[in-house]
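Hi there,

I know you've been waiting on this one. I reran it after we fixed the sequence typo, so this is the corrected version. Both the input and the resulting structure follow.
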Amino acid sequence: MMLGYPYGWITAASLFFLLILVVVLSSQVVIKGHMRRIGNNDDAEVNIKALFGIIRYTMKVPVVQFTGRSVQLKEEVSNSSAGINTWKQFNEDIDADKVASAIDKLKYLLEITRNLTGWVRKTLTKVRLLEWNWSTSVGTGDAMWTAMSTGLVWSVKTSIIGVLSQMVKLQAEPQMNVQPNYQRSAFTTEWSCIAQIRFGYAILAGLQLLVRMRNMKGGVKAWQNILFKA
C-alpha cells in the first residue's frame, strides 16, 4: 500500500502540470493597434499581451514628421515581463532608399525561404479580428473634389477589408465611416483594432518559421544578416 503513494503524487503532479500547459497554450495573445492623424499631429501605438498579461510589449510612435525627402519617426518601445518594465527610445529617418532596401530584403527572403507566403497565410487563418474601427474626414475646399475624394477613401477602405476578410477570421462587423468636409481643406483619420491568436498557435507558428529558416541555405544566420545588415 505504501508503494502507491509516490506514484499517486507523481500522477497528481503530472496531471497538474498538464492542466497548466493546456491553460497556457489555450490562452490568448491579444494585439491592439491604434493610429490617429489630426492635422499635422500623428501618433500610433501597438500593444501585445500574452500569458494573461505577464508578457507585454508596447510600441509607440508619438511623432511622425515629413522632412521633405524622408519620414522621421520618434519611437518608444516597452518590454514588460513578470512585472519588469523597460523602455527604449529610437529616432529613425525613413527615406526612399530605406523603403527600396526593405522591399528588396523581403523579396529575397521570399525567394530563399521555402513557402514563406504559405506560412504567413496559414498563420493568419488562426488570427481572430474582434474589433475594427476606422473613421475618416476628408475635405478639399471644393465640393466636387471632396465628393470624389470621399468615394476614393471608401473604395480603399472596403478593398482593405475585403482582402483582410480572406486572410483572418472576422468576429465582428467592421465599423467604418468617411465624413466629407465641404467647408475647408482637411484630412483626419483614426483607426483601431483588436486581434487575438491562441498562444499555442503562436508558438507553433514560430517553430514552423524557425524550421524553415534552419532549412534554408545559411540557416538562421542568413536571416539575421539579411534583416540587420546596413
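Quick highlight: The beta strands are 28-38, 41-50, 55-66, 70-81, 84-95, 128-140, 169-170, 175-180, 185-198.

Best,
R. S.
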